[in-house]
Amino acid sequence: MLASRVSASTFAFKSRAPVHHIRTARMVCNASAPVSQQVFTIVGGGRVGQALAEMGPGGDVVVTRGQAVAGPPGPIVVCTRNDDLQAVVDLTPPERRSDLVFIQNGMLQPWLDERGMGENTQVLVYFAVAKKGDKPTDGKTDVNPEGLTAAYGKHAQAVADRLHSGGLSCQVLGKDDFKRAMLEKLVWISAFMLVGAKHKASVGQVEAQHTAEVSELIRELCSAGAAALGVKLVGGEVERLNAYARSVAHFPTAVKEFPWRNGWFYGLTQKALAAGQPDPCPLHTALLREVGAV
To answer: Which PANTHER family match (predicted)?
Structure first.
């Protein structure tokens, strides 16, 4: 997704936060938004959480650090870092967990499946909020001027409507199309962050100066990921992902949140090697070793 500074809220939801730190949920109103829009519960009061609330009709409940997740019926949009997701789930009543909407970068599906939430709504976020209070910038590209943000699940349309009200694009996809789009986003952040870490380069520098290397890595990861997920590539992945890099050229690069990003592809490598099969991601493995990530 996108670099973590874009999709992850600056809100840090710590699982170790004691119960006595619970604070009262605050209401965020925006009278200019359409009154027909659904009210949300938003977990996380950082850049993305605040931006989503400001797009709404008023009446959203924003849940902050250590607070039990409770709010009106409908979507509970989780705007936290990946490593804080378990704390959010733990503080959500079991009967409301199917309403959790996940917008984090990386491969969430195995984690969700293990917790019985494999069909929860997920959103691939391709918009940027530079700092808290700023208006989001849509990640439209010269290849995809319609935008790349996409959602799947029972609350997908509600989230799309909210984003549209804020002037952002969002497509509602079926399961197979979303799975393919999810893979592309995972490939983007894994490939550009890794090549950028090798060359100490920004996203734009990777796209402009190391085009062949990152494109080869994109093709490799798309192929291995498609085989693992059982999805069929539609073509144009290299062009789409390089175009997105041009639209966020100033983003810095770093290999982080490894288990959620590059770690998923490295897991495919480990599984294959343990079975006596060739590494499906040899370039990726070599680059991980070169930057000291494994």
So the answer is: NUCLEAR PROTEIN
